[in-house]
Amino acid sequence: MTTTAGAEEGAQPLSPRTMRKLERASGSLASSTVAEMESRLPWFRRMPADQRASVLLLIQNGVAGFVSWLHDPQQSMSLSAEAFRSAPKDISRWVSLRQTVELVRIALELFEQQLPILAVNEKERAFLTEGVLRYGREIAFSAATSYAAAAEARGAWDARLEALVVDGIVRGDPEEALLSRAAALGWDPAAEATVLVGNPSSEDPQEIIYGVRSRAARIGRAVLLSVQGSRLVVVLSGPTEPGGDVLEKVAEAFGDGPVVAGPTTSSLAEAHRSASDALSGLRAVVGWPGAPRPVRSLDLLPERALAGDPEAEWQLVDRVARPLEEAGGSLLETVDAFLEVGGVLETCAKRLFVHPNTVRYRLRRVHELTGRNAHDPRDALVLRVALSVGRLARSRGLW
Q1: Tell me: the pLDDT tens digits for 347-373?
Q2: CA 215 to CA 252: how far, in whole Å?
Q3: Where do the domains of the chain lie, and which CATH numbers do they carry?
Q4: Are 127 and 14 spatial neighbours (Cβ–Cβ below 8 Å)?
Q5: Whether 263 contacts 188, CB under 8 Å
Q6: Disulfide: which of 80, 259, 334, 377 matches 294 by Cβ 3.0-4.6 Å?
Q7: Is the pTM of this model over 0.85?
Q8: CB 259 within 8 A of CB 196
């Protein structure tokens, strides 16, 4: 058998007669290839006529390119494959890579069946068979390269769109624009959303993206993320129960330093509230050196209030000061006395002229109303700051 390499080194391996037959047969070969595709591929039959016509044109270019390559196998391989190299960029919007592979396979099968028949002798037939295989390999590589380039372009566009969505959440953009962009990224707009902020783990954006997405994938959650200057913002989908470890697993993707999680909102449309609280907590977390990682923004209410966050002040009033005042003077008086004596139960009871069991009962009621246990040092700080903020707000006529 004569090899292609040997043919390239010698004279033209195909006779002028065979070349003319190949040129005349190119149109019918392209038409029969499309007919075979329609027969074997149901999804191809369902394509609109203009898209099938584009595939026909692609095949005609491929046959013409093959004939051009046969004229000069050593010089024209890259040029003849160029038509295929650029075509998937046009059709990749409506034909997947898997479908393109099916189309190429059918076309090459027909090439292998029909082109060698045009040869005038066994030597030419062997050359044509090997040429189809070599040309088909080049076409396959060209198609794969084009789809890879298209995928990279889509990935870059998705990354920019994702950054716009996260930035919109942080800035509180109008709901309609935010949801439409998130939907284009495959985010379920009805899913619960929690915003986490902290330091990025690397200066390499790809490494950051891989770290966040890989950990989110392990827990079966969708995420949106963006690096904004020196901070990493992650929007996590789904519930985050207090007893679960979802937030802890995602926090592993952050760099050194604190990680603050905002409250979980009912949908992405409300996520700007979670982002606002998380960023406020990130600014104030320095005031609590022993804060866990991640720490909830709600657990940073005292530090946020001291840092001048009006939202934190309002939450302290609404969650702690107001419920205690509305419950009656005895609870508020008991909490004040208990905190003043440093949490010593008997001393508090003597100051109030009540039995220690009465103090215990009242503190249990405080815990039920506010979720804060006055015996716990951290909760005691929250209670003290909340009562102070409440009194200041009342003196200014805010409630």
Answers
A1: 999 999 999 999 999 999 999 999 999
A2: 8
A3: 4-152 (1.10.490), 178-295 (3.30.70.2730), 310-395 (1.10.10.2840)
A4: yes
A5: no
A6: 259
A7: no
A8: yes
